[in-house]
């Protein structure tokens, strides 16, 4: 029977048919989806913290309202993704326990500090720009609930990226001090964003299997290259210089050649030793602790009103 189920699963993948929650799937397929989707959700929720730091410091009511909407969106993305992960049989408590205990990861990029308002521009422009590159192919993921959650999320990401670029444009058209602030943010956020796509393909333990299962459609290095090729012209338009002396258009490859990535920094951040890892995780754990009464009240209410 198992071999028939395996054959049906593989036939569905081959026909690009979505695998749905009630379908049989190999345990390893389920496990890697819980790993990736829960970590994706953790990234969205933790990703609210760096930007949240600037909501009360925004330079105008308009910027404040936009940033508030973006951070709220990230929270919503986290909830869609936790819900998608729950269709695989895991629970919110298990996923949050894995995050709080350090067993689960979240995107490295959110372990860097947001030092000036220009960081709000750099994050929207670069980090959400990178997220769009990585998330659009996930709309074609073989697992139905994940693919459908990504379609909704990608629609909102394009606004996130555009408002970031708009902040950078305003600063670059402003005073020399404002342009210098935008350059400083680009200098600090460029390489961490390049690392966000994950390790090189030949040192990525999950890529081959994830590509065979139709979870990862484009490799880490190919997405990274796509991001760099798309972003260099935007930096030129802003009149900002990208902090990579080796960056150069390669006519033959028709891609930009770029410098060495400092993978030791990436591994340090993944190991919990980035600039803000401890602060991000303790903020999340405190918020979870402080929110216990809300969860208990909601459960008591649901019980009293028969789960409605
Ligand atoms: N930060 C933290 N961990 C990372 C990472 C990063 N930037 N890149 C890779 N890793 C981890 C992987 O999770 C894996 O560890 P694990 O096995 O314990 O999970 C290990 O490094 C090896 O990497 P692989 O390439 O082998 O792993 P994957 O095949 O899972 O690829 C990934 C990594 C490309 C991040 C993939 O998991 C993915 O596409 N995830 C979903 C998308 C996502 O999380 N995007 C980024 C954050 S969301 C965001 O940016 C929100 C936006 O609104 C700003």
UniProtKB/TrEMBL annotation:
Record-level GO cellular component terms: cytosol
Alphabetical GO biological process terms: phenylacetate catabolic process
InterPro entries from the UniProt entry: Aromatic_CoA_ox/epox, Ferritin-like, Ferritin-like_SF, PaaA, PaaA_PaaC
Positions in coiled-coil regions: none
GO terms of molecular function: phenylacetyl-CoA 1,2-epoxidase activity
Protein name as annotated: Phenylacetate-CoA oxygenase subunit PaaA
Organism: Undibacterium terreum
Gene assigned in the entry: paaA
């Amino acid at each position: 029977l198992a071999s028939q189920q395996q054959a049906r699963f593989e036939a569905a993948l081959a026909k690009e048919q979505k695998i749905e929650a009630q379908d049989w799937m190999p345990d390893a397929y389920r496990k890697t989806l819980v790993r990736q989707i829960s970590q994706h959700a953790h990234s969205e929720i933790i990703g609210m913290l760096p930007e949240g730091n600037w909501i009360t410091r925004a330079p105008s009511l308009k910027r404040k309202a936009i940033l508030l909407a973006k951070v709220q969106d990230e929270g919503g993305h986290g909830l869609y993704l936790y819900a998608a992960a729950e269709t695989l049989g895991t629970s919110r408590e298990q996923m949050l326990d894995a995050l709080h205990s350090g067993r689960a990861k979240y995107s490295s990029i959110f372990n860097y500090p947001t030092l000036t308002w220009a960081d709000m521009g750099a994050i929207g422009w670069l980090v959400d720009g990178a997220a769009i590159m990585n998330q659009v192919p996930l709309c074609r993921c073989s697992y139905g609930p994940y693919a459908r959650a990504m379609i909704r999320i990608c629609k909102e990401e394009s606004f996130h990226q555009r408002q970031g670029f708009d902040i950078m444009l305003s600063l670059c058209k402003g005073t020399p001090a404002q342009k210098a602030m935008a350059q400083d943010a680009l200098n600090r956020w460029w390489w961490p964003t390049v690392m966000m796509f994950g390790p090189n393909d030949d040192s990525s333990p999950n890529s081959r299997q994830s590509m065979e299962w139709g979870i990862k459609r484009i490799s880490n290095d190919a997405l990274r290259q796509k991001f760099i090729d798309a972003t260099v012209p935007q930096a030129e338009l802003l009149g900002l210089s990208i902090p990579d002396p080796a960056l150069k258009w390669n006519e033959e490859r028709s891609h930009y050649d770029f410098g060495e990535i400092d993978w030791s920094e990436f591994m340090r951040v993944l190991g919990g030793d980035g600039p803000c890892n401890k602060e991000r995780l303790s903020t999340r754990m405190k918020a979870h602790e402080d929110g216990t009464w809300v969860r208990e009240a909601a459960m008591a209410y649901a019980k009293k009103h028969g789960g409605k």
